[in-house]
Amino acid sequence: MPGLAAPEAEGGVGFDYRMAMGVPDYWIRLVKEMRDEDWPMGHLWFELINRRADEKTIGYAESHDQALVGDKTLIFRLIESDMYHHMRITDENLRVDRGVALHKLIRLITFATAGHGYLNFMGNEFGHPEWIDFPREGNGWSYKYARRQWHLVDDPGLKYGLLARFDRDMIRLSRRFRLFETPGPRLLFEHSEDKVIAFERAGLVFVFNFHPSRSYPDYCIEAPPGRYRMILDTDARRYAGHGRLDGNQCHFTRFDASENVERNLLSLYIPTRTAIVLIPDNDGIPITH
Questions:
Q1: Residues of the chain whose pLDDT is less than 70?
Q2: Is 1 inside any structural domain?
Q3: Domain holding 153: CATH number?
Q4: What is the pLDDT of residue 1?
Q5: Are 213 and 256 within one domain?
Q6: How far apart are CA 194 and CA 40, in angstroms?
Q7: How many CB atoms lie within 10 A of CB 249?
Q8: In sequence order, what are the residues at sequence separation of 6 or more whose Cβ sits closer than 8 angstroms to the Cβ of residue 86?
Q9: CATH code of the domain in which 197 resides
Q10: What is the pLDDT of residue 258?
Q11: How far apart are CA 234 and CA 217, in angstroms?
Q12: Is residue 3 part of a domain?
C-alpha cells in the first residue's frame, strides 16, 4: 500500500515496524523437515528472539509466503487431508490431535516472544484449511480459493470455533497485561531433549512442552518466588484440548540450594504438546478460563 510506511506528517500511515520474516520460515522448516522428537529447543528460542534491539518488529507464524497456491497453510501441513474428514468435535483422530495441539503451541510461543506486535494471517487464527489462489488464467479465473471460509468458525460442531476462541483469549491476555509494551521475554529454562521451554514476560510465566509423547509430572522450573495460578491452558477442552490440567490449582515455588546454587523452583505437571501461562497470585486476579 503506497504511503503505509511514510510518516503521518507526510500523509502516510506511519507504519514503522519490521516484519520478523525468519520466524514463519523456520516453523515451516521444522514441520516439513524434522520429526517432532528432533525439534531443537535452543535453536527455536534463538530464531524467535533474533531481532535487533533498536528495531520494532512484528511476529507472525505464517503469511502468504506459506499459504499461496502451490504450498499449504500451516495447519494443513500438520493435518493434511484429515482436515476434510475429522475436524468435528466428536471425532478422535491422532493426526488432528497433533496438528491442533501444535498449531496452538506455535501461535502462542510466536505471539508471546514477538517484539512489538503480532500478525494473524487470513484465517490462521482459526486454522483455515486451504490455500489462497487468486483468479488467473491457470485456474480458469476461479474465485474458489480467493476467499476464507469464515462459516467454519460459526459451526458449533467443528473444532475451528475452539481454535478461534483460543486466539481471542490469547489476544485478550496481551491486552490485559500489555505484553508488547514490556521488554522482550527472559528465558527461564530450556531443555532440548525434554522439548521444554519456559520464559517470563510482563510478569507472566510461559511454559511449553513440545514433546510428542512425554508428559512430565513434578517438572521443576526456576521462577521468581511466590504463588502462581494458571490463566491460560492450551490443553483446555474449550480450546479443543484434552483437559488434563486442573485450572483451579495453585502452584508454589520452593527454595532449593541442593546444587550449591540458591534458586526458587516451580514444580508443574506439563502434559504432552501443552503450554500454560501462569501469573503470580498475589493480587487476587481471577482465573480467566
A1: 1, 67-70, 283-289
A2: no
A3: 3.20.20.80
A4: 65
A5: yes
A6: 10
A7: 11
A8: 93, 95, 96
A9: 2.60.40.1180
A10: 82
A11: 17
A12: no
Spatial separation of the C-alpha atoms in residues 61 and 103, rounded to whole Å:
9
Q: Say how many domains are in the chain.
A: 2
Contact 78, 31 (CB under 8 A): yes
Distances (CA, A) of 129 to 55, 81, 123, 194, 222: 33, 9, 9, 30, 38
Residues 207 and 156 occupy one common structural domain: no
Residue 93 lies in a domain: yes
49 domain-assigned: yes
268: domain range?
A: 186-280
Q: Are residues 148 and 31 in the same domain?
A: yes
CA distance 242 to 135: 40
Among 141, 161, 181, the domain boundary falls at 181
Q: Which residues pair with 97 in a beta bridge?
A: none
* Strand blocks (E) in the chain: 18-19, 57-58, 186-191, 196-201, 204-209, 216-222, 227-233, 250-252, 254-256, 263-270, 274-280
Q: 3-class DSSP state for residue 161?
A: helix
- Alpha carbons 225 and 220: distance in angstroms, whole number: 13
Which position has the grid cell 512484528?
58
| Side chain identity at residue 264, one-letter code | N
- Per-residue cell: 266: 516451580
Q: What are the helix (H) ranges across the chain?
A: 22-33, 41-49, 64-67, 74-79, 94-113, 151-154, 160-177
Q: What is the pLDDT of residue 117?
A: 94
Last residue of a domain, one of 181, 216, 232: 181
Question: Would you say 66 and 87 are in contact if contact means Cβ atoms under 8 Å apart?
Answer: no
pLDDT, position 259: 76
